Amino acid sequence: xxxxxxxxxxxxxxxxxxxxxxxxxxxxxxxxxxxxxxxxxxxxxxxxxxxxxxxxxxxxxxxxxxxxxxxxxxxxxxxxxxxxxxxxxxxxxxxxxxxxxxxxxxxxxxxxxxxxxxxxxxxxxxxxxxxxxxxxxxxxxxxxxxxxxxxxxxxxxxxxxxxxxxxxxxxxxxxxxxxxxxxxxxxxxxxxxxxxxxxxxxxxxxxxxxxxxxxxxxxxxxxxxxxxxxxxxxxxxxxxxxxxxxxxxxxxxxxxxxxxxxxxxxxxxxxxxxxxxxxxxxxxxxxxxxxxxxxxxxxxxxxxxxxxxxxxxxxxxxxxxxxxxxxxxxxxxxxxxxxxxxxxxxxxxxxxxxxxxxxxxxxxxxxxxxxxxxxxxxxxxxxxxxxxxxxxxxxxxxxxxxxxxxxxxxxxxxxxxxxxxxxxxxxxxxxxxxxxxxxxxxxxxxxxxxxxxxxxxxxxxxxxxxxxxxxxxxxxxxxxxxxxxxxxxxxxxxxxxxxxxxxxxxxxxxxxxxxxxxxxxxxxxxxxxxxxxxxxxxxxxxxxxxxxxxxxxxxxxxxxxxxxxxxxxxxxxxxxxxxxxxxxxxxxxxxxxxxxxxxxxxxxxxxxx
Length: 609
Fold this sequence. Notes:
Layout: E1 4-5, H1 10-14, E2 20-21, E3 35-39, E4 42-46, H2 51-57, H3 62-70, H4 73-80, E5 84-89, H5 102-107, E6 110-111, E7 125-127, E8 133-138, H6 140-143, E9 151-153, E10 156-164, E11 167-172, H7 182-187, H8 191-203, E12 205-209, E13 215-219, E14 225-228, E15 231-235, H9 236-239, E16 252-256, H10 259-275, H11 301-310, E17 312-313, E18 335-337, E19 343-345, E20 350-351, E21 357-359, E22 362-369, H12 374-377, E23 381-384, H13 393-399, E24 400-403, E25 405-410, E26 415-418, E27 428-430, E28 433-437, E29 445-449, E30 452-456, E31 462-466, E32 468-469, E33 472-480, E34 487-494, E35 500-502, E36 507-509, E37 555-563, E38 578-586, E39 595-604
Parallel strand pairs: 1-7, 4-10, 5-11, 16-22
Antiparallel strand pairs: 2-3, 3-4, 5-6, 7-8, 8-9, 9-10, 10-11, 12-15, 13-14, 16-17, 18-19, 20-22, 21-22, 23-39, 24-29, 25-28, 26-27, 28-39, 29-38, 30-31, 32-38, 33-37, 33-39, 34-35, 34-36, 34-38
């Protein structure tokens, strides 16, 4: 298990046993009191000097020592009253930092923890004085105790270890390069290339001046104090998930979306919805969204919301973690979930895994291309049998093919319209299609129903047509009137040539009298079965009312059914939509005097990506 190294573990670390042995190869800089210590196969030079005294006494550390002197590091060491681990670079490898970076660079090499070599583990994170972490990485030899040349502090290789009176000195091959945090990285993104993503991340937050941690650097001509300013960034979007982009304790992964890939994905999504004939559907609800088909195109805001919620993960993923297993039988094996539980499928989306950006509190990957998943473009397909009355005679014969059924009519407001929240949600009632068995002496009857849509046209009538459904996996539900027994349902995909292909086995819907499972669209047995944006726990709703029964998916038919891509793909690689057929049959007649058909509903599953 990877560990965070805090001061609380200091005592145990510094009291670990050390065996002293003689040494004949010390230089003048090492002083006569120094000895070598063999600590887990690592040659450790031991001195009874303090860390500061030892660094100041080594001539090959003079440039690093001068940096510490200038930036007040030595002055802080005694006053801190704590042990230290200090990272040092010899003059041969030392490169003077820019003046404005000098203090941060100096403080990035000191931590208030005394870490013995035997206590180093790959993945340990040392919190340095500049309030950022340095990560320890060990290869196989280092893990076996051979640290010299095989242990890294960030990207700097360990070359020597000294145990001082008040801590350890680790000599490394180059100055520590401290990565920026996720917050800083986002702030520094090029506006010309990343403005959409950057604005999405920052728009719901703000920044506050942190006076306590801002350094006074002078006074201007008007007598105003000038600060080397530090800001605290706030963002409710991330705060809700306890995901602080600035926190050095965070260990996260971020996907970065350029304007080009966002615009291309939105363009492809719009074009796909147009090809599916979904950009004109259906009942407009609040917030500019659609219930049956989710579009929301006033500003692409809803689709952009998916992008933002899909971009952040509360663990560090390596390139290997994000490399898809293309032979996986279950496509969800290639799924990861963001902090907002948004599904990201690595076998569909494309990341630049060759160039990860290491950050102080995580890692970032550039998104090379992506698509909005089907199960985000489509919220649910939910249509009613009452469209029968809006069909002409030919359409009725085409979309409602029946055997031994007669007396078709639509019962207006058989269930009275109601709304759980007036002025917010529209009133919704049930006007089902009813019919009777033509010859009650014959047990068999059948309806081959083509799911259809109906849109009011400019001439005062209706445009009616077959609902084209994108291939993929769905949960299927339907609504009847309680008491209808003995009906079987089976779903078919109908190719452009008219061939029927089974989507699933026949399902027998044995409905017990008195059950509300299939009672119009008032079914409440399925989870996640309400209209988009509807929250049955809204504090404005009447407690204990029929809130959970409002305009639901209905009763279960198929937990998951696959609609095959019988019409191939479009230019963008999306499966082209297909026509469906719902076959409802009975070989045992019915005890109901009247058959009542309310609605059908398909809701995309996680596999419909």
